[in-house]
Design goal:
The protein is an all-alpha fold. The protein is built from 6 helices and no strands. The chain starts with a helix and ends in a 10-residue tail after the last helix.
């Protein structure tokens, strides 16, 4: 079975698609997310040809995070984990209460 057919077949065979449709608007949104996953799988296969395997696709997408789409010029607040902020510089920062209370190991909060 081609990689990009696995998800559509799986959600149909398991009844997940029918369950989402029965949920109305919330289910429709989730079904659109599944559709986007399938589209991403198709694009990955088109870009990688015979090297495109499900394992390679999953390894690649597991390395992608929201911070990869960070726009430093956007006029907005950016929330992220301490882990994803490593190596990034921001003009303004606000530490979490867990750091202040020494629940998360950190330098003294000032």
């Amino acid at each position: 079975c081609p990689m990009e057919h696995i998800v559509p077949n799986l959600i149909r065979i398991t009844g997940y698609e029918d369950m989402l449709v029965a949920q109305g608007e919330e289910g429709k949104t989730r079904l659109e997310n599944v559709g986007q996953l399938v589209t991403n799988m198709q694009e990955y296969k088109n870009n990688n040809g015979e090297n495109a395997t499900l394992r390679a696709f999953l390894e690649e997408v597991s390395l992608i995070s929201d911070i990869d789409n960070y726009d430093k010029d956007a006029d907005s607040v950016t929330l992220m984990t301490i882990h994803s902020a490593k190596g990034l510089e921001f003009p303004y920062r606000n530490g979490c209460r867990a750091c202040r209370n020494q629940i998360v190991p950190s330098l003294p909060y000032t």
